[in-house]
Predict the structure.
Amino acid sequence: QSNILVYFFIAILNLFIIITGGRVVIADLNTKDGTQVATELNAIKPDSAVFVQCDVTQRSSVENAVKTGMK
């Protein structure tokens, strides 16, 4: 149940960010789910989200996700 609350909080936070003009980077190992989340956010506000496959145990992978978000 706590995982559901975390996902709900993250979803609300992402919606708030894009509605107020920001962009979000969805960084995850799971390509299918990450792409789906970015697609759903972009359906609400085009060009508001991008997915990057990211392994947080690898510094270079995290750096790539951050660089993508800075573009």
Notes: The mean pLDDT is 92. The longest strand covers residues 24-28. Helices lie at 2-19, 31-44, 59-70. DSSP finds three helices and two strands in the chain.
